[in-house]
Structures are given as structure tokens and as C-alpha cells.
Recover the amino acids of this structure.
């Protein structure tokens, strides 16, 4: 009987030690407020950008954005500037859900960019997006100037 209790105590101690020594795997994507150099916020607030690709349902609309320069500010505001002037708007990103949101008003052509986008890929010089609504079949790429 004593031997059986000793085995049970030994197993309990061994099992407890294994549980305590296990480390939780925190393999989640950084959020919008991360200081990670690969977060969308850090990437987009560095320098100015232009639309390098914009297709809707297979049609190329890149010429609509020729001459525009986009600046994304860390406070969530943005500007779209061309020879006709500047349009102010807002933007946000959520890297944990691969989302990027732009609001530039209702005037053509910038209203085409006012949308919720899914982040396809990102680097220090490019952000590739597609429309959250797959029925719209839109893809947008920003490249650093």
C-alpha cells in the first residue's frame, strides 16, 4: 500500500513539474500599435506613397491616380496630393486581422480607395491590398515614392 501511494505521489509531482515548465506559445501577429518594423503603421508612416496598381474586375484603373502622392500620418490622418490640390482623409490598420482602412471622401477618383481592404503582402516599399468584399474584385498596391 505504501508503495502504491509513493508511486501516485511521484506521478503527481512529475506531472505538476511538466505543467509548470510548459511555456505558452505566443505566435500572434503584432497589432496596430506594435513597434515592430514590419507593422503596417510603421511602414506606411515612413515617406510618401503612390498607387502603383489598381485593378477592378480585371480592368486597369491606374491612370486615375497618376500624379497623386499619398502621405499616411501616425495620428491616423492622411493626405492625397496632386497638381489640383490636397484631399484630407483618414486611415487605420489592424495587422492582427490583416485589415487596412482608407477614407478619402466621396469625390472621384479617391472615393474608389475609400474602403476596407485586406492586406495581401507588405514590405518597407510596398503594400498590396484587395477589397474585403470579394464581390468587388478590386486590388490596390501602394509603392513608396
Amino acid at each position: 500500500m505504501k508503495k502504491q501511494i509513493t508511486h501516485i505521489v511521484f506521478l503527481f509531482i512529475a506531472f505538476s513539474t511538466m505543467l509548470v515548465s510548459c511555456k505558452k506559445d505566443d505566435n500572434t501577429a503584432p497589432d496596430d500599435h506594435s513597434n515592430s518594423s514590419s507593422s503596417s503603421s510603421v511602414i506606411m508612416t515612413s515617406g510618401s506613397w503612390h498607387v502603383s496598381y489598381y485593378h477592378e474586375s480585371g480592368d486597369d484603373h491606374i491612370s486615375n491616380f497618376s500624379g497623386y502622392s499619398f502621405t499616411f500620418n501616425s495620428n491616423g490622418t492622411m493626405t492625397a496630393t496632386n497638381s489640383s490640390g490636397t484631399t484630407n482623409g483618414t486611415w487605420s490598420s489592424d495587422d492582427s486581422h490583416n485589415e487596412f482602412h482608407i477614407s478619402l471622401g466621396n469625390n472621384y477618383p479617391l472615393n474608389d480607395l475609400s474602403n476596407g481592404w485586406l492586406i495581401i503582402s507588405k514590405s518597407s516599399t510596398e503594400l498590396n491590398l484587395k477589397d474585403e468584399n470579394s464581390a468587388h474584385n478590386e486590388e490596390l498596391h501602394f509603392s513608396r515614392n
In short: The domain at 40-144 is CATH 2.40.128.270 (Lipocalin). Confidence is low (pLDDT under 50) at residues 14-36. DSSP finds two helices and nine strands in the chain. Helices lie at 2-21, 40-44.
